[in-house]
Amino acid sequence: MNPHRGLIHHLIIRVTNARKSAGFYEPVFTYLGYELAGSSFDENYGYQDWKRWDLDTPHEISICQADLKFADQKHVRGAVGHHDHLAFCAESREDVDRFYAEVLIPLEQGNLATIEDPPCDCPEYGEGYYATFFHDPDGLKYEFVINPNHLHKKDQRKSKVSES
């Protein structure tokens, strides 16, 4: 089986103002290993395409300006059609701390992000779960997380499957 089967091929995030939001997404995606693959901004529409070329599979996240007729409709967390939040994997606790210090604090100081929670342990999500939570200019929620408990659960699953 292809190890990439079922992974996300691409994701489009709609934003109110693509040019303004680019100021948020550029440092976030650059830190996460994405490269800018294309962009365009004009008075009615704008977009940026970000790709990870190192994964041997198409993996792209685009920010696209919302249709002008919907510009006054704000993001409502929990509404149908809107994501609740998107979490990106970190390499380590130190990676979460570095992202917070190098990316999020400057973004918040530039009024391009809102930090909901600085890096913290989140035992309610599992042992070792460590994350920072933040929002883009439109209020879309994101998380940068290390979850070593995932590997422990994966090993437990393998043990159960091999016993069967």
Would you give an account of this structure?
It is a single chain. With 164 residues, the protein is α/β, with parallel strands linked by helices. The chain has two domains: 1-72, Roll (2,3-Dihydroxybiphenyl 1,2-Dioxygenase, domain 1), CATH 3.10.180; 83-164, 2,3-Dihydroxybiphenyl 1,2-Dioxygenase, domain 1 (Roll). Helix content is 28%, strand content 30%. The strands form two sheets. It has a four-stranded mixed beta sheet with strand order 1-4-3-2, covered by helices on one side. Strand 6 (114-121) and strand 7 form a beta hairpin. Helix 1 packs antiparallel against helix 2 (93-109). It is globular. The mean pLDDT is 90.
- List the quaternary state of the chains: single chain
CATH architecture of the largest domain: Roll
> Can you tell me the overall shape?
globular
Q: What structural class should be given to the helix and strand makeup? A: alpha/beta
- Biggest pleated sheet: 4 strands, mixed
Describe what is shown at a glance.
This protein has three helices and eight strands; from the N terminus they run βαββββαβββα.
